[in-house]
Amino acid sequence: MKKTIKVLIVDDEPSILMSLEFLMKKEGYSVFIARDGSEALEIIEKEVPSIILLDIMMPHVDGYEVCRLIKESIRFQHIKIVFLSAKNKEADIEKGYLIGADLYVSKPFSTRSLVAKINTLALGIVST
């Protein structure tokens, strides 16, 4: 059933993109990748993913701005947003949740823990 769930991974770090893409595909998700915020916005427009794993510090458009634009759009408000960021100060995390994040995971993170959190989010999508 997860196969119908589209996950967009947005990060400017190729090693993170590759490892997360591998993990999410292994879990059975349909995976898309973007290397910056503007590429992410183009993919969101075309594919309308259910979950976005979103870095904050990226060229062109940062993750906070991508999240804000998604949550302002009625068409995309349902998308679950998981920030993955090295910005781990309380103010950064609070800002992430204030603009609409469903989860905030600080880097470095446990891939096992991240996959469990994504699967929990996906269960909420499947059951609605």
Average pLDDT confidence is: 93
The oligomeric status of these chains comes to single chain
Strand order of the largest sheet: 2-1-3-4-5
Question: What would you say the CATH architecture is?
Answer: 3-Layer(aba) Sandwich
Largest sheet: 5 strands, parallel
Shape: globular
Unreliable spans: none
Structurally, the number of domains stands at 1
Reported by name, the CATH topology is: Rossmann fold
- Rounded to the nearest angstrom, the distance between the terminal CA atoms is 13 Å
What is the CATH superfamily classification?
A: Response regulator
SS class: alpha/beta
CATH C-level category: Alpha Beta
Number of separate strands? 5
Strand content: 15-25%
**Residues in helices, as a percent range:** 40-55%
Number of contiguous helices: 5
Provide the gyration radius in Å. Answer: 13 Å
The topology string of helices and strands comes to: EHEHEHEHEH
Organism: Arcicella rosea
Keywords: DNA-binding, Phosphoprotein, Transcription, Transcription regulation, Two-component regulatory system
GO molecular function: DNA binding
Pfam family, one: Response_reg
Strands, helices and their partners?
Layout: E1 6-10, H1 14-26, E2 30-34, H2 37-47, E3 51-54, H3 63-72, E4 80-85, H4 90-98, E5 103-106, H5 111-126
Parallel strand pairs: 1-2, 1-3, 3-4, 4-5
Describe this structure in words.
With 128 residues, the chain is of the alpha/beta class. The protein has one domain: Rossmann fold (3-Layer(aba) Sandwich), CATH 3.40.50.2300. It is 46% helix and 19% strand. The protein contains five helices and five strands, in the order E-H-E-H-E-H-E-H-E-H. The protein has helices spanning 14-26, 37-47, 63-72, 90-98, 111-126; strands spanning 6-10, 30-34, 51-54, 80-85, 103-106. The chain has a five-stranded parallel beta sheet with strand order 2-1-3-4-5, with helices on both faces. Strand 4 (80-85), helix 4 and strand 5 (103-106) form a beta-alpha-beta unit. The radius of gyration is 13 Å and the shape is globular. The model has no long low-confidence stretch (mean pLDDT 93).
